[in-house]
């Protein structure tokens, strides 16, 4: 199980069994999250059976933790999470190739090394973000045992030295492999990359929505950039602090330059570029989208039951046909549609049950506009 803090990018790796029960999940949470960081305000997880169980819901309810599932209105991953997963997978592949079948015993060292890598978004390592200092990463040569030490004590001391040296060798190897992997990724990324523009305080920029989780089932209709926003501070050559409006305060206001774009200020004569519709974010930094109205319904053999949905803030031309499980929780919109259009197709009870199960499992599907 991998736990990632959305603010500091800290992470914990917990070895699990494939037959783990929900009580085991709760104990992992106590051991690897609660004990170290206190109780979180919210937890975003997939729709796996353990995370949708009544036991887990009851635990989170008693601890006043809101649960957000990556279901129809919360896509399974965002760009930042995908990048983090790819990074961890590559890192663990390097690690497992060294430790072979005893990877779970050395997983703490993998976590320690991963927590001490500087994150591009925050400009600091997760460890430093949490503690305010960098941990000691190495030690000197083994200390010899006193000459008068008993033989068995000397042997145990020698074994302890060997164990510590082995830990250091593994840590050094991990750091070397990680640095090599990062260098390879950087070289590949820079192959066709043009230098990012340098911004100054007061410049107006647009912010990419790549790392803002969208609850909308059709991401291609999302605006790629929002803003413009004013540059408040230059953190370094690759990071800037922006002045964000109140509705975006749940976002961290420091961003890497690859998420920014100069705001256009030279429209053609007579041209008016309307700004993207305003968005709001919940406490998890996720975009809140709402259904304006359900326009139509249909049932086909290939795609099953679908609703034609108009999204709030978008024109009728941008309405999309959505599978039932993407709309099943919009109770008011469905009731209003059925009241207005009594002769239109309606989902059967079995279709509704299936849609609720799919939404609970985190199935996300969206169809292109017809």
From TrEMBL:
Residues 135-155, 340-370 are annotated as: Disordered. Residues 289-349 form the Chromo domain. SUPFAM superfamilies: Chromo domain-like (SSF54160), Ribonuclease H-like (SSF53098). It comes from the Eukaryota. One of its GO terms (molecular function) is RNA binding. Residues 1-143 form the Integrase catalytic domain. This is Chromo domain-containing protein. It comes from Hirsutella minnesotensis 3608.
